[in-house]
Design brief:
7-stranded mixed beta sheet; 410 residues; 16 helices; Rossmann fold; alpha/beta; single chain; elongated
């Protein structure tokens, strides 16, 4: 039997997964390997009847430019009991698997390392190489390199957000748009900036003050007031879902919104529309202020995860896939494949980017001090400043309460 490699994908989808898988398959098959794909993420490795298939060239060639993931994914995370009782070591031996390739975030990578150590302890030597992915762009890759799928997701999100903004102009209304990004505001800033939204709210903006619902709402109202002073009756507010995930439980509960709760008693924010929540709260505050503003919520989330990859990601993901073969032949294992800005492939070991105290990979935040970020805040967005106090007093008694820089303590 020919030696084999095994590919699986964990977590949620991102544009370019199929390009990575197809490039790995084509490269290894050309060198005489059998290439197996495992459905269901890690779940298949802890089953006596794993759902797997074998790639051929036609299959790899047919999926490489498609969105979504041909290999079905899952967030399955094995327990210590799974390793002791359910690991299917026979599957690796029967197929002479020499390399396990995993595609996913930091959890997927950590599990890949644990599996490699488990197999080595059972006297089955295997290499393990991880391809990092997330549309949130929050993995701390060197040189501020993007995670694959981010630019494709941003492009799809921009198409949606641009259409929404056109609707706002056509109907003389406001839209509240929320973009994915639990830990960082990359998607919201990229999409909102590309569409010239008058207000973009991301968690990194609150670097000098605590995030509160009142501050989030006042930032939105600041933009509405500024545009009123400009004689403009429409607009759109882009808010990253991350700002809500950083709110305290009590503040979320005090909103009056009905949540389901996890096993620890925390509100399950991921199950509700952040755009709808923000829109409802904003409507209530605008009504108290006597401001008549027609607003509608739009969520940008799952719609962009399975979009077709753009040219950048097709080439980027192809090199990541081919880079897996390069690292394997160089003898690397327990690492992630990384392509630097010059196009060179290098191994990236978890120990170099993880928190030494916890072992976790800390998310990368948007750098709001760069010229790019500052230009968006200073020139594209519309909000109340001290120069606008006299004009906005026509609608609110205390303009300073809606002063963008005072709200953020900038």
């Amino acid at each position: 039997m020919r030696k084999s490699i095994l590919i699986l994908a964990g977590g949620g989808p991102a544009p370019g997964i199929n390009a990575v898988v197809a490039s790995i398959a084509k490269t290894f098959m050309a060198k005489g390997f059998r290439v197996l794909g495992l459905h269901g993420g890690y779940k298949g490795l802890f089953s006596m009847d794993p759902d797997y298939m074998q790639f051929d060239f036609r299959l790899a060639d047919s999926i490489f430019d498609r969105g979504g993931s041909f290999l079905r994914m899952s967030r399955y995370k094995p327990t210590e009991t799974d390793y002791r009782e359910n690991f299917n070591l026979r599957f690796f031996k029967d197929h002479d698997i020499k390399l396990l390739v995993t595609i996913g975030g930091d959890d997927t990578a950590s599990t890949a390392n644990a599996i490699e150590k488990f197999l080595e302890a059972n006297k089955y030597r295997i290499s393990s190489i991880h391809v990092p992915k997330t549309i949130d762009n929050d993995l701390p890759l060197p040189e501020n390199a993007p995670t694959f799928g981010f630019y494709s997701a941003a492009a799809s999100g921009t198409t949606i957000a641009s259409t929404v903004y056109e609707d706002a102009k056509s109907s003389g209304s406001w839209f509240i748009v929320s973009a994915m990004g639990r830990s960082a505001g990359y998607l919201a800033l990229e999409i909102g900036g590309a569409c010239h939204y008058p207000m973009i709210i991301i968690p990194e903006m609150f670097n000098r003050t605590e995030i509160t619902l009142d501050k989030i709402l006042n930032l939105g109202i600041s933009s509405i007031l500024k545009r009123k002073a400009m004689g403009i009756d429409y607009g759109a507010i882009m808010v990253s879902e991350g700002v809500f995930h950083k709110l305290g439980d009590k503040e979320l509960i005090d909103t009056g919104i009905t949540f389901t709760y996890d096993d620890h008693g925390h509100p399950e924010l991921g199950k509700i529309s952040k755009a709808q929540m923000f829109n409802d709260l904003l409507d209530a505050k605008l009504e108290k202020l006597g401001l008549k503003v027609k607003s509608r919520p739009v969520e940008i989330g799952y719609e962009v995860r399975c979009s077709d990859p753009i040219a950048f990601d097709l080439m980027y993901c192809s090199q990541l896939g081919m880079g897996v073969y390069q690292l394997y032949t160089e003898g690397h294992t327990g690492c992630m494949v990384f392509v630097d800005e010059r196009g060179y492939v290098t191994p990236l070991f978890l120990k170099g980017i993880q928190d030494p105290a916890t072992g976790k990979i800390l998310p990368r935040a948007v750098d709001i001090t760069t010229d790019r970020s500052r230009a968006i805040f200073d020139h594209l967005m519309n909000y109340v400043t001290e120069d606008d106090y006299d004009s906005v007093r026509a609608w609110v008694e205390n303009p300073a309460e809606y002063d963008f820089r005072k709200i953020l303590n900038w």
